[in-house]
Amino acid sequence: MRKGVLILVLFAFTALFAYGENNATKGNNYPNLSKADLKIKRGYSKEALKCIQCHSEKTPGIVADWKDGRMAHAGVSCYDCHVVKKSNPMASQCPGVKGTNIYISPMVSSKTCQKCHPTEVEQFLKSGHAKLAAAPVVDKAKFQKLMYHFEGGEFMGVKKGIGKNTATRRSGCQMCHGTKVEVKNGKPINGTWPAGVGTRYPDGGIGNCSVCHTRHRFSIEEARKPEACASCHLGPDHPNIEIYLESKHGQMYLTDGEKWNWDSAPDAWEPGDYRAPTCATCHMSGIGELSTTHNVNERLHWDLMHKKSVVRSGERGNGKKGRPLMKKVCQNCHSKTQTDATFETLDDSVALYNEYFEKADKMLKDLKAKGLLKKDPWSDSFQELYYFLWHHVGRRARMGAAMNGPDYAHWHGFFQLFQVFKDMQEIYNYRIKHNKIEEVSFVMSSAPL
Q1: pLDDT, the chain, mean
Q2: Contacts of 362 (CB under 8 A, 6+ apart)
Q3: Which range of residues forms the domain containing residue 230?
Q4: Distance between CA atoms of residues 165 and 388, nearest Å
Q5: Any idea what the CATH number is for the domain that residue 242 is in?
């Protein structure tokens, strides 16, 4: 009986193999298993070659960078990223295409990048680097008053809207946050371009990918190094690069980062290629069982930026899901015991900061209810200190604890936090006791360092 079954199975298998072989060899020697035809064309179109040749003379630095990058190696040229439809609000013509049907834009929004990188752009658009990044510059009246009325000098007579009035926005705020690009005849106006990561373009695209993937080389090595983040994540209010470089991770990067393998493919860049993580490793890279993401909020638990720290939710991410994801990153190199201890320290640091903030906020509300705050917060010593408490020293304390930067958690953080708080208490007690605002402020108009 068993012998008969075996013969039957062998016959069926032979017949199936013969059918498959005959079927495969009808049209060619291999079965077509792909869902779509894959067409590979080598070389560039004559239009693309004309761009390359012209810009080799006009802007050789751009072409040199492009030539050494992966775009050139993949056959992606100027034409693929910069040519737009005539109806595009950013469409214009450079001298090289004048009189033709070709229109170009020097501005490249994430919509263009999305044509080849749809997953990356979709993830990016869910992150704090997209619409949220430009919100202070574009949407927030309070921030605009700071940029133009105070920093831009309107309060001392500088005319609103002229060049020097917008200089602080153009040289500082928009270069990191991004802004809304304004155009006339397809060309950017009013100093609204170039701009930072959350730039909003007239074609509806949000996001400037070249902030991290510097044009025109688009080096993956450059994007993975902490310096890629350092242009914006530094300074007295969020010294992330300073904290990283003082941490043990940063010390290892500074010591032998030059020897690490920075060129591995996405999702294949793992411990062994490097000895310590960079910003990209923790917040974006594929590592262990985690896939690469361009949503930098995805692995975060706490909101450490705003006045009171809460677990992230809504458009700022999902903090409940973020914590276990970040732990998975850590546990590629650290034990569960050490990982849990680190996050416990962060949670306690956040709880302590929130205690300071809630008491400071109660004093502010008391003074406001009694009419003991000045209308101009920047001429009011209590309100200035309130701002420094959460925006400067409070952030440093929280971020130092999150990134293992003891000097920032302590001396630049909690040590200064309690001093600022005690000064606020003194001012509060004086105003409550005398029912008036002190005549002379003793607060210097600069942030505590």
Answers
A1: 91
A2: none
A3: 220-337
A4: 25
A5: 1.20.850.10
